[in-house]
Specification:
By secondary structure, this protein is an all-alpha fold. The chain is built from 4 helices and no strands. Keywords: Nucleus.
Length: about 120
């Protein structure tokens, strides 16, 4: 049981060092201090933190989600059209190949025009 607690504490310490070395702790501390120092507290502390860390606001996020959804629909439509066009192209290639082959067979099977 003691070893489990030591491993857990070692993991916590390693994670804390990781957050500190990557600048996450400083960034969060600065944002939280800025929030604390606000005379008029924002209605959404989470949105305040997101904005200070450079993330989109909730309304911007929802707008981006809607835009992404619309773009996904357009992409799916274009992909279907592309696949249909590729299929048509293959069919045209195949029919052209058959026409060339049948023309060649007809030409090869005909007797020479000068009678020899």
């Amino acid at each position: 049981m003691m070893r489990y607690k030591e491993e857990k504490e070692a993991k916590k310490e390693a994670f804390r060092k990781y957050l500190e070395s990557s600048g996450v702790l400083d960034a969060l501390t600065k944002v939280l201090v800025a929030l604390y120092e606000q005379n008029d507290k924002p209605s959404s502390a989470l949105e305040f933190v997101q904005q200070k860390l450079g993330g989109p606001s909730l309304s911007e996020y929802e707008k981006l989600q809607a835009e992404m959804s619309n773009l996904q629909i357009k992409y799916d439509d274009l992909l279907v059209k592309h696949q249909e066009t590729c299929k048509e192209l293959e069919e045209l290639k195949n029919s052209h190949s058959m026409e060339v082959a049948s023309t060649k067979e007809t030409t090869d099977g005909e007797a020479p025009k000068d009678g020899f």
